[in-house]
Amino acid sequence: MELHPMLDSDTMPNTGLWYVLSTFGDSPSIRVGHTCSFVKGSKPGDNGRLYVIGGANPSGAFCDTFYMDLNTMQWDIVDFPGFRARYEHAAFVPTSSSDKIYVFGGADPTGNMNDIQVLDTSSNSWSTPAVLGKPPSPRTFHTTAVVGDRFIVYSGGHSGPDPVSDRQVHCFDSKSGSWSILHVQGDSPKPRHGHVMVGIGNRLFIHGGMAGASFYDDLHILDLNKRCWSNARKKKVFPSARAAHSGMAYETDLYIFGGMNREGALDDLHKLDTVSMVWTKIELQGPPPACRLDFGMCYLELERAFPDTTEDDDIIGATLNAQEVLDRELKPGSASSRGSSAKPGSASSRDSFSLRDLKPGSASSRDSRHDTSSESSSQGTEGPQSLHDPLPDLQGAEGLVNPQDQLSDEEEEEETPRPEGATGTPNINQPPNTMTMKFCLIHGGMDTEGEIFDDALLYSFCGMKVCLICVPSS
Does the entry feature the keyword Repeat, yes or no (predicted)? Predict the structure, then answer.
């Protein structure tokens, strides 16, 4: 069993590694179908907060809301009533209201939902606003497709392994509080649930999902300017068919992680360059997270302090040499741990769990929501109707900075090459020798044997080697 390094307050993260987030206080219990949302701080030097909303486990569906102060890494709970228990819902933060988290849909013991609830993070209070227009039919929709202030809904879960039959594109405008239907040309994706739907620029990307016994590996694009669907052609490298995975945007790249297919739960991380439309499987320098599906995932930022670059250049050189040795020692390929058990530092349930076990009055889902299907192809190849009895039926799953990377020593003329994906970002409002680090965070979820997790892991988009080079001098 391989261990993940801990990300403490003084840790300088490296690319190619998943880190266990070191936290304090009472963290959220084991759960699936919840959401994670990052709310930026309101002033320079404030790391903001991470919010974990809802979800379910064998004890039932949750109406709780946890948040972590990213300055102190301390967990706390929103002590304000009004949030309706649910799981496999969507949560999004509009551009013009960055202190608010909107929640849509999901399921509770009585069935699916289609309501909107709002968490005001400045007061940590919940509200259920009246909305205009006709909302989508009740559904599970565990993915977040937000463009500015618009939240887009396409397809989603109906009952058991079946998606809703609705093929319309629904749009919620958080400014006006109104629903509308977007009239789109072209061939729309087949109805599905458990898919990833992420907005980048003015385009929406839909990947994977399932319907009945079919899994999908296709990629569809909705151009909101042209109001047109297109189906991206597959190239040599692309992720396998899957559902119940999660996705997020970083700059112009789409990242997806985990999920499940015919063989079981997955632990791989893939990146789509949405400019070249080329997929890349991320090769790790350490172990991946435990295989999982139906987890929370989001982008977040943390400030990190770094060594004083005004010191002798030998300090930087020695650090880089040490990093190169470490890179050689950590063999790629050791990251292919496929075990479904949680790693140390990532607590999990030891009891088998299926959302089928959740009955009205004691849990968050109808019995029919636990049939499982499998197949693997973009055309929806048929497979066995059930992988494992405890498998849940799956009801679904967020800038542009390119700083020049150069040594702080003015006598150094040659620019140091930057590894792919590394974009540590100096902030002129930050104290000297700090850097805003960019991460992908995953939290909780379960494997196909019913084991549930409550761990929080981070993957850094900026390595230690690059950040030491990029740090602004004091």
Answer: yes
